């Protein structure tokens, strides 16, 4: 909003200082500062409001240390995160950018699904909340929207790498003219629609989903929509399962969002994309503003969500965080990096799937269900082993930082 306003003022009246809003770095800095201030300033008021309305978390007794002490802690704190994402993005982002529009729609979409789940838990006193199949339908719907938009929007294009001969003429030691022709990888001058994505740790690191369909364009894009559905559903649920300890999913998500912001900036900058030998994605650099707002919102939320938590984000926050991370990665063609970058979410999800599968299998075979872990998700397993909550959370943060660093290293290990 302010971008367009100050662009008009700069062009029409040459207003001093208005040109700063043309720089992504300035608007991203403003977004992260504003999101932090929104959470810190308004967070306290929202917590007090939720306490007055007795909108507190219902805690089941699972035999975990310190668990019952959290009963009555205000939930639905994800509303604070959503507010701190949407306001700075609307103010400092380019609202005519299709990638920004996709992220805004995703944030609101999943925020509504998570908010409905929290509403049913708190006000209807149904501990299971919104039935799982309805959550899946909402996540699948968002995946369809994202995949179809990537398919049909003429603004979503990339510039592929191409190999071109470069001729060099020089004088040798005897002063004779020598002509040398070398094959050089350059960015194509034309933007194209493609289903290409990035594979980590491989020299020619671009993979086209069309290879799986024999080049059939319609089948390729239908496959891409299915991939988008799977990525959105998997990451969103992974973040939701990780949200079990004070500050866990919040702190784990900060390095993930930061890395995605860096990758968006590099992919959207033609010089850096050429230097790093990655796809150049026009207009994707604008996502840095959204990433900055999201990172600021998460760091600010830790002010109140760190141990002992004064507020929980609820599904309003966790579903939204996971979903926008997935959509962000799809927009910058880095969804195949998510198993590495979101490794904590992946392990948390697998721990639940393994526990449930093994329990059902052993119950059928032996008549009694057995467990691999003391409790799932895996962070509760460590709680059962007697490790204090803050130590578990801190170690998971460190692991997330390590995975984020390795993800960035993939830019040069090819």
What does this structure look like?
With 414 residues, the chain is mostly helical. Helices cover 60% and strands 7% of the residues. The protein contains 14 helices and four strands. Strands 1-2 form a two-stranded antiparallel sheet. The protein has a two-stranded antiparallel sheet with strand order 3-4. Helix 2 (24-52) packs parallel to helix 9. The radius of gyration is 24 Å and the shape is globular. The two termini are 40 Å apart. The mean pLDDT is 87.
Summarize it.
The protein is mainly alpha-helical and 414 residues long. Helix content is 60%, strand content 7%. Helix 2 packs parallel to helix 9, helix 7 (248-267) packs parallel to helix 10 and helix 7 (248-267) runs parallel beside helix 14 (389-409).
